[in-house]
Design goal:
Subunit structure (chains A, B): Homodimer.
Number of helices of chain A: 16
Low-confidence stretches of chain A: none
Helix content of chain A: 40-55%
Enzyme class (chains A, B): lyase
Shape of chain A: globular
Mean pLDDT of chain A: 96
Oligomer: homodimer
Structural class of chain A: alpha/beta
InterPro entries (chains A, B): UROD/MetE-like_sf (IPR038071), Uroporphyrinogen_deCO2ase_HemE (IPR006361), Uroporphyrinogen_deCOase (IPR000257)
EC number (chains A, B): 4.1.1.37
Protein name (chains A, B): Uroporphyrinogen decarboxylase
Radius of gyration of chain A: 19 Å
Largest sheet of chain A: 7 strands, parallel
Order of helices and strands of chain A: HHHHEHEEHHHEHHHEHEEEHEHEHEH
Amino acid sequence: MTELKNDRFLRALARQPVDKTPVWMMRQAGRYLPEYRQVRGQAGDFMSLCKNTELACEVTLQPLERFELDAAILFSDILTIPDAMGLGLYFAEGEGPKFHKPLRSEADIEQLEVINTAIDLTYVTDAVSMIRQELNGRVPLIGFSGSPWTLATYMIEGQSSRDFARAKTMLYTQPELLHQLLDKLALSVIDYLNAQILAGAQVVQIFDTWGGVLSHSAYLEFSLTYMAKIVDGLIKQADGRDVPVILFTKGGGLWLEAMANTGCDCLGLDWTIDIGSARHRVGDKVALQGNMDPAILRAKPEVIQREVKRILGSFGKNDGHVFNLGHGITPDIAPDNAKIFIDAVHEFSSSS
Amino acid sequence: MTELKNDRFLRALARQPVDKTPVWMMRQAGRYLPEYRQVRGQAGDFMSLCKNTELACEVTLQPLERFELDAAILFSDILTIPDAMGLGLYFAEGEGPKFHKPLRSEADIEQLEVINTAIDLTYVTDAVSMIRQELNGRVPLIGFSGSPWTLATYMIEGQSSRDFARAKTMLYTQPELLHQLLDKLALSVIDYLNAQILAGAQVVQIFDTWGGVLSHSAYLEFSLTYMAKIVDGLIKQADGRDVPVILFTKGGGLWLEAMANTGCDCLGLDWTIDIGSARHRVGDKVALQGNMDPAILRAKPEVIQREVKRILGSFGKNDGHVFNLGHGITPDIAPDNAKIFIDAVHEFSSSS
């Protein structure tokens, strides 16, 4: 394979010193970029864009043309697995993701089959291969999946939810049934992420968007257990390099110690936790990724720069930190402000 | 004043031993009760019910007729202060609270005046007086208010919000303006809660429903500072008894140490934190209130009982714990399940 020209991101994930703190942004290929909106218009709806290898590759690379990012992330959705399982993912205009056929009975769950990525989700691995080739060693490529619990919430609710009434009712009244579902999803995620790694993903991230709605004990039993199972089941090396795994539970700041014990390499942090206190709690066990509130990107350059400096200072050393937002960049952000953010990370962390 | 027949709640707030762990439920007077729905139907809309002294008193007392609760809480809304400031609170059917005149300019904020409860919110103090009289010493009465930050989010957004874009934009781009608003709100809350105490409230709780959407440093600066100011400004004793203050920041589990340093008496906990680890962190500085996930009330009696036992065991002693849900009880819960919950708390914590 081509030599990697910028390995800051991989070095930080391995907790090795770096010349500058690496940075990327969740949802960096997205609606805040006019060039993205143009391609999206061409493709039609969101899933058509995900399924079009050339266009998915194009939008993945777009932010790298504008900004000095240290990683690329596959353009896709966290709900591709339930879609491949037959639930019929769609996006109603102005609303979040929905399923035509949400899980409504025990039989629905019993009949679900673990996916085979090589048959069911070739559009994803095709995109990974093409992006990796097009990147040509510029920066590492991140593959990703939703966590089993997060996928289950959407599959049970049929869409996003305020209080996850259906999913939690199943958790408390039919825990075995939920475990059956989560186990199928964990096996599917393992297959899916391993296929992405074999196709060229050099790092993988598991997005546990809704782990934070659970109680401490329910989180351990219904979300973290399955993420740990995935970490165990992943290919450890590809192209002679380790393949690091990042776990990101939004709202998971209370549970970092348990997350760090899964064997993962890095924890994603949302903005509610002070990154210095997070580092103190996990020690050198894992790297940390985060954690600026994306809302700060609406502020003046000085405010963005001050916050970047504060977070770098709070983390306090030059190894083991991947700078990122605490959640995805929102469509209303001016690309110039994203550039100020990214440049500030490199400037203020520069060891020279 | 009448002698208090059940002081378990006050004893627990003072971290004194109790015969049984006291329990109440956030939103215990609410839509899950058929007798509430009937009175609500009589009153018309939600605010008409709040403003009708007799009916507000009636629904406050309803859950005490059904369940062995150890406290009553004033039936009202957290948004009475902004309504009194002229923003025009209303509830559209099936939606959350909204304002006819949200804050849209600097002038809107500059023109706001600190409320005078004795003039602007007599319907609240009238209800407190009547409820206290009708309770006749049965259990203590809790008064409450929204926190300044939480009130500000609704006032700026005009309604609840997914990402609080307007409020956060103000926080990061016009922090002085937001501080001006928060200061007016803190002074209003002090006046409001002191008026409730003088009218008969024996405990007060500050609901910081949206503190948890802030970063660690923004929480300290824009939410906790103002709650601390309120704690400082409250009347400390009434009827020869201390008036304890409970702070509840939903999603505030990472910040307990700072909250405990405000001089408050008790911290409300949502269900995401293990109450034993919370107690370990705050020591004997404050009592703790919480923290069962209200979703568990949908489960079978055995599951509810097991969870009550687990939380009691995690807290681990018989002083300083007020049992509660981690958030309000939802309208879909069967009253019988609420009874199972409340009885379980008393049964499993009984020292006899």
